[in-house]
Amino acid sequence: MIRDPKLDIKSLQIDDLEKIVGQFGELEYRARQIADWLYQKRVQSFGDMTDLPRDFRARLANDFAFGKIEIVRLLGSRDTTRKFLFRLGDESLIETVLIPASPALYGSRSDRRTLCVSTQVGCAYGCKFCASGLEGFSRNLRPNEIVDQIIAIERETTEKIDNIVFMGMGEPLANLENVMGAIRIINAPWGLGIGARHITLSTSGLAPQIRKLADEKLQVRLAISLHGATDEVRNQIMPINRRYNLETLLAACDYYARHKKQRLTFEYILIENVNDTPEQAQRLGRIARRLGAKINLIPYNTVQGLPWSRPSPEHQERFLSILRQHEVAATLRREKGHDIDAACGQLRLQTKRELQSTPS
Ligand code: SAH
Ligand code: SF4
């Protein structure tokens, strides 16, 4: 299918809208009206923007796309983590995870609903444990496709989302321009109005982009997928570490934390016999303490076809208690529902496998 070459209306910032309105010979306040239809009233076509002159609506429809993303599969129920599989305009599949009010996550209050959004179709970074990387990279998501994940899920569930984590499929810092475009819309009072401190970006360790993000104005939170406290362990499971080793990554983290006056979060998936030894815990504790970072321990979710597994609960607790000895803030996710809580990328993978095995 040929991609629509038109820019999508939901990829534009308010000053872009103001310029366009001016070029069309309309008054500036029309830009706010459009934003209001898009992000407050949330209409699904230009035709629904009924207080805009009819010919103006037609010209907008002629010049701009109004993309749609469609929910094609849903797993989970109201009180649990729910996973949504979306089909985009070009038939690509991405997934988004809605995490209900739960123990404090990424600095948010516990009564907040968190949405885990995708930023790319697939992922090019090929971490050995991750479902998103398994089938490689297709393309970057555009700002509207990121923003629409939030709008579509709020519409479907009628629940307000107050916390956004960029931890779905893809590496957000490899699509930084579009992700920043989306974040500005998510954060803006004329957009979705979600505070920057309730937005967390997660990266596998793109050190130069971490520095670039540090120089941006927005106070978004940053989480680093560390998953190993030495180059030896990271090299084994995360190819990115061969490009930016631990020292380079930690220097960029330090730069971010100082620049933003912010505490970082280290994500650490516990994988049996790979990164769960007391020695790794000791080193991780020292690193986190030096950088003043928090640690989120996440027992590994098994991915069909991959050889890794999660350590026993005793080994998970042992790891946590060593971190606590270093007096760092550390949490261990102990939730049930292993199957549905599985990390992003898995529902898409499972659906694709099912489709491939269904004779047509
Ligand atoms: N690419 C970014 C963000 C998306 S991945 C990153 O790597 O940070 C979001 C998080 O899910 C990362 O911490 C990633 O390591 C983790 N993850 C991936 N596969 C997982 C699995 N099978 N079990 C638990 N966490 C997983
Ligand atoms: Fe990509 Fe993140 Fe998965 Fe690594 S963990 S393959 S960077 S999505």
Structural features, described:
The chain has 360 residues and is an alpha/beta fold. It folds into two domains: 9-63, DNA polymerase, domain 1 (Orthogonal Bundle); 70-357, TIM Barrel, CATH 3.20.20.70. The chain is 37% helix and 16% strand. The strands form two sheets. Strands 1-2-3-4-7-8-9-10-11-12 form a ten-stranded mixed beta sheet, with helices on one face. The longest helix is centred in the middle third of the chain and has 15 residues, at 143-157. 42% of the residues are buried. The structure holds S-adenosyl-L-homocysteine and iron/sulfur cluster (SF4). Residues 129-130, 167, 171, 202-204, 225, 267, 269, 298, 300-301, 303, 343 line the site of S-adenosyl-L-homocysteine.
Summarize the structure.
By secondary structure, the chain is an alpha/beta fold. 37% of the residues lie in helices and 16% in strands.
> Which structural class matches the secondary elements?
alpha/beta
Give me the CATH superfamily of the largest domain. Answer: Aldolase class I
Give the tally of structural domains.
2
CATH hierarchy, class of the largest domain: Alpha Beta
CATH architecture of the largest domain: Alpha-Beta Barrel
Number-wise, the strands total: 12
User: What is the H/E string?
Assistant: HHHEEEEEEHEHEHEHHHEHEHEH
Rg from alpha-carbon coordinates: 21 Å
The end-to-end span amounts to: 20 Å
